[in-house]
Structure formats: structure tokens, C-alpha cells
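Memo to structure team: turn this sequence into C-alpha cells by end of day. - J.P.
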Amino acid sequence: MTTEEKLQHFYDASIESAAKEAKQLRDEHKEALDKMFQEHKETKERQAKAQLQAESDNLKREINKTVSAKQLEYRRILSSKNEEIKKEIFQEVEQRLTQFKSTPDYPEYLCKRIQEALDFAGEDEMIIYIDPSDEQLIPALTSHFGFSPSISRESWMGGMRAVIRSKNILIDNSFARLLRDAKDEFIFTGGMADE
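Reply from structure team:
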């Protein structure tokens, strides 16, 4: 083999070795870049997903806050309207009680309540009070029961009260008391159900 052939063989071997080495370096570099790209892509996807989740959570919080504020506003409006209706209902009840007092059924009602109180008291001494507005009924009550009920110093819209002092018992069948109890026990169930 001549020197020129040896040189050519050396040159070809060197070029082939350099090409192999370059290809290996290029493949390693490409593999490293692909790995870096994949890691970068996964990092960005995680960041985007985390940001999307954070924005979604924030949006849900804002929506919930708005919904809660609206629900509170609507509950206040509903409560206000319920109170307004309740007030109107009890004003009407009060008017009807006043009308009832002018009917012939009222003295019968009063007699029935007084008799119930007398039955309850039995042999115990009892004082029966009637409303000052019922003073005109005293003669009829006196002839019916054989005693005269006392007139109260305070007005309670009608009805009667009785006191059994020996047992510290107050029997309160006054319209004011009955109306107050009805107001306290009244539950408005009209309209939409509160969930």
C-alpha cells in the first residue's frame, strides 16, 4: 500500500470515525433537547393546569359569594314581606275581635270563660275581672252568676281574667293575651318553601 493509499485510508477512517462521533453527539444532544423539551412541556402544562384550577376555584368562590349575598337579600325581603303580611293578618284579627264584642255571642263567650274559671277554682276564693269596655255587661253577668265581676284598671281588648290568690294563679283569657300568644306561635307558611 502506498503512502497515498494509506493517507486516503487514514482520511476515510478518520472521517468515518468523526461522522460516527458527530452522529452520536448529535443524537445525544437531540435526546437531551427532547428530554428538556418534554420536561419543559410537562412543567408548563402543570403550571397551566394549576393556574386554570386556581382561576376556576376563584371564580367559584366569587359566584358563591354573589349567590350568598343574593340569597341573604332575598331572605331579608321575604322576611320583611312575611312581617308585613303577619301585621296585616293580626290587624284584621284585632278588628274582628272588636266586631265580635258587639255581637250577642260575646256575652255567651264571656259567661263560658267565667264558668270554666269557676269550675277550675272549685271552693277557692277567686276574683274575676272584665275589661273596662265591657262595663255594660255587669248587670247581665251579675244576674247570671249571682256576683258582680270587678272592672280591671287596664284594658285588654275584651275577655276576662281571674285571680286565685290562695294559689297564686292567674287565669288570663283576655283578648290581648290570646292575640299575643297567637302572634308568638304564628308561623307563616305561605309562598315558596325556604330550602
